[in-house]
Write a structure and sequence with these properties.
mainly beta; four-stranded antiparallel β-sheet; single chain
């Protein structure tokens, strides 16, 4: 059985990358959220990831690498910073 997430949420963006599952944003029944969680299937645990600049729900997400431009037409991007991943808003 998969461990429960730290925060209840619906309308999240979800993506699997490098052996982890990322659940980002969503709606907790009161407000849209700007935080996210990373699931580690080896330890069966969730951990917090860096927050987005703006709260959002019901959006698309992709794994990408910013090379020549800081702009994206997609609502959210996963960008690599040091040894962790954090969800970043599109500019």
């Amino acid at each position: 059985m998969i461990a429960q997430m730290r925060n209840r949420r619906s309308g999240i963006g979800v993506i699997a990358h490098d052996g982890f599952v990322y659940a980002v944003g969503g709606f907790n029944g009161i407000t849209r959220m700007n935080n996210g969680e990373k699931y580690n299937p080896v330890t069966n645990s969730w951990s917090n990831i860096t927050e987005m600049y703006s709260p959002r729900s019901n959006f698309g997400i992709e794994v990408g690498l910013r090379v020549a431009s800081r702009h994206s037409s997609l609502p959210a991007k996963i960008a690599k910073y040091t040894s962790s991943f954090c969800a970043r808003d599109a500019v």
